[in-house]
Amino acid sequence: MKYFIANWKAHKDLNEVLAWWQTFSDLLKNGQNSEAEIIICPPFPLILSLKEKVAGFKNVHLGAQNISQFDEGPYTGEVGGKNLVNLAEYVIVGHSERRRNFGETDEMLARKTNLALKYNLKPIFCLENESQTIPPGVNMVAYEPVGAIGTGKNEPLEKVLAMKKRLPLNPTIPFIYGGSVDEKNISYYLASSEINGFLIATASLDPTRFYKIVSLA
Ligand code: PGA
Fold first, then answer.
1. Distance, CA 140 to ligand 1 centroid (Å)?
2. Is there a contact between 24 and 207 (Cβ–Cβ < 8 Å)?
3. What integer is the mean pLDDT of 185-212?
4. Share of the chain above pLDDT 70, in %
5. In angstroms, what is the span from residue 204 Cα to ligand 1's centroid?
6. pTM for the complete prediction?
């Protein structure tokens, strides 16, 4: 079994999300992808539009792309763990774009992870290297080298596996790779039993491309 996590970042409006799902779900219904656990992470306001639709597919789940470091309270504009209850099962924590553009530190990410766990959201904890701390309770780690994100320069398998060795990971924790994974290079990574899944942005925006990737699992 492999995880395929679609990270849509700040792309897509409501109509585009619905059209994406229509195409993707038709392909999924007609195909055989028993080995894929699919986690779709739309922007916050669009998660609800897929909730009932994914319910008919036991291998399709929803995730958020971020969670507030603050719990329920007077934090205008924030989206906290409680706000995501019954909407998302997973939440991406510590994506490099959050660390860079929004100044997210190890301490903030530890708070976010705690709050995700408090509200029964499964954190997908992203890191770029072994110097970044994995907070306790994390049960999925995504290694994403910054130079590979959105560049078409996916990291060679040997380097990904070398990083996995350097990380203090419990062997039961799924290890995810992200960075320019697409329909052309996915088979190369799928051949390794050391990689348990993929975090995919650019190639997940098109439902046909994403289905192609998923169908190869
Ligand atoms: P990419 O991005 O698939 O476009 O390289 C991955 C990510 O940012 O999670």
1. 17
2. yes
3. 97
4. 99
5. 9
6. 0.97
